[in-house]
Amino acid sequence: MTDETLLSARDLSLHFGKIPALVGVDADLWPGEVLAVVGESGSGKTTLLNVLSGRMRADAGAVWYRDPARRLHDVHAMPAPALRALHRSDWGFVHQNPRDNLRMAVSAGGNVGERLMAAGNRHYGNIRAEAIDWLTQVEIDADRVDDMPRTFSGGMLQRLQIARTLVTHPRLVFMDEPTGGLDVSVQARLLDLIRSLVARLNIAVVLVTHDLAVARLLAHRIMVMQRGVVVETGLTDQVLDDPQHAYTQLLVSSVLQA
Amino acid sequence: MSAPPQMLRVEGLDKQFTLHLRGGLHLPVLHAVELAVHAGECVALAGPSGAGKSTLLRSLYGNYRADAGRILVRHDGEMVDIARAPPRTVVQVRAKTLGYVSQFLRVVPRVPALDIVAEAAPDRSREAAAALLHRLNIPARLHALPPATFSGGEQQRVNLARGFIGGHPILLLDEPTASLDAANRDIVIAMIADAKARGVAIVGIFHDAEVRGRVADRLLHIAPLQDAA
């Protein structure tokens, strides 16, 4: 067990005009840990994900990332090329809409292989073999490798995005509502896939979701956000089964029991 | 032979619930609870329904937050206070030291019974998982199926297999025989006896008086608190 965090944020603040999106937010993530950020729309959870991943700047505060050589990097002070390189290698980002990440005019195999090439891989045969291996891991038939993503269903597109993200073996993946907008049966398959891949590859994840059941299934820890403020944080089952804050109690009690 | 080591010690545990959606209503459930459990010992929580037996069991697991007091668990040779430990430590204590068998299996969609049990085994052994499921009379034809469609008793036995396979030195059991017939109940009683013989410390809720009589070394009475004025 290491006590060194993979990612740490301190006192992040960000306002959109008069609307507070982040108010004094601290966050820590350790290697191999899944942290869920939950809250209603407008609570600031997606903004937090964007700030943690350096895609958006905060008005104040800092985000630190520790690389495999244990060097600390101030994510918001990094030169843009270095941040892009990080996003291509050590990090991954899974968007709610897979079309925001995939290249729709490139084959499924090309989408996966492209990230390998961006990470410096040049051997075509290896890239294709690796792409096929990853399609299989996300339960897409190998004979679909040359098909265009537009022929894929929503669930398949999301699985293709996950293959594209994980092919470079990132240590840290940011996920924004990865199961949002999918049919329930498709969601279950995707959740099971994410759960097993994350555990097997020991990937750290910051997962934004409004779905408490998704958080319970995937996350070790949970942060509850309301109007840009982290109102409660702790072990996932503790926060969901014994919520302390009024807002968390409201969220938990608002879930329909199936 | 030296006395068996203390595995779990509760000191001055208070627990209340504050219901913010009910005008901040305070529901005190546990006050000044004391408990010590040694290796190889089984303590049964006794008391009327609603007295707080499940609340105590969940607090011991770190599922509920303690308002006051300490919950000391022997983990890697040290006493760790579950009530104060950071979440990451609680995750590690649960992985290695502290097992919990809930009353109902929380099924994960699509995951087969065998995988649910094997994932909880220390070495992820599928053979050990299959053997334990067999011992609990879950036939091989069910092993590859997700338990969502299983009967209540079958789900409970999958849950028991998952709880017992981890080899945790401390086990918390919430009504482990509630949905079981007599034959399966006897198997679970034998499993509890085996665990005790291996030195596992057990705290459990057993409504069935016969089960309680056969597994428990002593009782801890939990009396309902008066509602706060």
Structural account:
The complex is a heterodimer of chains A (258) and B (229). The mean pLDDT of chain A is 93. In chain A, strands 6-7-8-3-9-10 form a six-stranded mixed β-sheet, sandwiched between helices. In chain A, strands 2-1-4-5 form a four-stranded antiparallel β-sheet, covered by helices on one side. Chain A is globular. Chain A starts with 6 loop residues before the first strand and ends in a 5-residue tail after the last helix. Chain A is built from nine helices and ten strands. Chain A has a domain at 1-90 and 173-179 and 205-258: Rossmann fold (3-Layer(aba) Sandwich), CATH 3.40.50.300. With 258 residues, chain A is of the alpha/beta class. Helices cover 36% and strands 25% of the residues of chain A. In chain A, strand 9 and strand 10 form a beta hairpin. Chain B is an alpha/beta fold and 229 residues long. In chain B, the strands form two sheets. Chain B has a five-stranded parallel β-sheet with strand order 6-7-8-3-9, sandwiched between helices. Chain B has a four-stranded antiparallel β-sheet with strand order 2-1-4-5, covered by helices on one side. Classes of the chains: A alpha/beta (258), B alpha/beta (229). The interface between A and B is medium-sized, with 23 and 19 residues.
How many helical stretches of chain A? 9
Strand content of chain A: 15-25%
- What spatial form of chain B do the alpha-carbon principal axes imply? globular
Unreliable segments of 5+ consecutive residues of chain A:
none
What ranges of chain B have pLDDT less than 50 throughout 5 or more consecutive residues?
Answer: none
